[in-house]
Amino acid sequence: MIEERFETVFGRKPDISGFTPGRVNLIGEHTDYNGGMVLPTALKLGVSLAFSPRNDNEIRIWSDKFEDLAERRLSDKSTQHWSDYITGAIILANEQGYLNGGADIAVETTLPFGAGISSSAAVTVGILKLTRDIAKAGTSDKDIAVLARRIENEYIGMPCGIMDQMAVAIANPGQALALDTETLEYELVDLPKNYHMAVIHSGQFRQLNEGRYKERKEECDAVKAELGHDNICQMTDSEFDSLKNLPDVLRRRAKHCMTDHRRTVEAVTCLRQHDMVRLGKLMNESHISMRDDFEITVPKVNALVEDAIKLGALGARQTGGGFGGCIVACIAIDKLETWKTALLDKHPESFWVS
Ligand code: GLA
């Protein structure tokens, strides 16, 4: 229990504690900073936090994952340490008036890192929600997600979109969050009970802030400059044709954003109509688009996706930022166990997440 862990480490009971889930994105990748739709769902796995404010400026963070106690200060803006996300959240909580000083925090997580299932969004959203509740501030979960994104963009230097923070702040397991990232309007859509959205780690770990995510963001910025507006995802076919002066690589980036957005809109309809066969096809097409047009997949993930489909999944694709991490596959519940055993046997470095 996280409360007991807190007491062992800090010698007092925590003032507050909570759980924030991780997320898996079913479809709609790299659309969330280009004005498009995304369709994530919350996992049962996630991050537990126990928390007490302090009157001085010390921030002490104990993590089970690192088996380490980090000691930071409110004025400490350096990055490159596992405790950066939480430190950034405490600094922002002070700026928002939720806190007036540092904090003691214990963290336990069941989310693997570098997997593309949002461990960082779960900790930042989790801390901001707890501090909001301590301050009895009326900030909505949506606004908490917007704040949490700022920690990534401004403090960590990762130019991510809003999907992960919205997903972990709002979605529940068993429901997908159909989110329009341009307006932040959303709808929760039930996932069918006779299918499982399996999450399997490829065994290839990745770090988004190592630069390749940023490179894609910059390529999209170049497309936006040519288009004359920021919404690559919702451009028309004739707008796409008008990009012919751009280098081929940028046209392919734009094509991925436009087509993955359209697939995501259709996927929401499929979920509502329980058309899992069509949803599976859209997931497969999304993977091919990420592989050939957006170029964010790696051979190990491609092989895992191919076998997931060959062995019986209705659809499978890489999920999250890319360059490794997890796949998500739609598999009928009655086939799940045999499928899972066969797939993991064939890919010994991969492992089951959810
Ligand atoms: C990461 C980012 C998200 C999103 C995905 C790709 O998870 O944090 O904002 O861009 O990659 O869809």
Characteristic key phrases:
354 residues, Ribosomal Protein S5, domain 2, Alpha-Beta Plaits, five-stranded mixed beta sheet, 42% helix, binds alpha-D-galactopyranose
Could you outline the blueprint of secondary structure elements for this entry?
Elements: H1 2-10, E1 16-25, E2 37-38, E3 40-53, E4 58-63, E5 68-73, H2 84-95, E6 103-109, H3 119-135, H4 141-156, H5 163-170, E7 175-180, E8 186-190, E9 195-201, H6 212-227, H7 237-241, H8 248-273, H9 276-292, H10 299-310, E10 315-318, E11 326-332, H11 336-346, E12 351-352
Parallel strand pairs: 4-6
Antiparallel strand pairs: 1-3, 2-7, 3-6, 4-5, 7-8, 9-11, 9-12, 10-11
Helix pairs in contact: 2-3, 2-4, 3-4, 3-5, 4-5, 6-8, 8-9
Alpha-D-galactopyranose (GLA) binds at residues 25, 29-30, 32-33, 160-161, 163-164, 320-321.
Protein described:
By secondary structure, the protein is of the alpha+beta class. Helix 2 (84-95) crosses helix 4 and helix 8 packs antiparallel against helix 9. It has two domains: 2-190, 2-Layer Sandwich (Ribosomal Protein S5, domain 2), CATH 3.30.230.10; 195-352, 2-Layer Sandwich (Alpha-Beta Plaits). Strand 7 (175-180) and strand 8 form a beta hairpin. The strands form three sheets. The protein has a five-stranded mixed β-sheet, with helices on both faces. The chain has helices at 2-10, 84-95, 119-135, 141-156, 163-170, 212-227, 237-241, 248-273, 276-292, 299-310, 336-346, and strands spanning 16-25, 37-38, 40-53, 58-63, 68-73, 103-109, 175-180, 186-190, 195-201, 315-318, 326-332, 351-352. The protein binds alpha-D-galactopyranose (GLA).
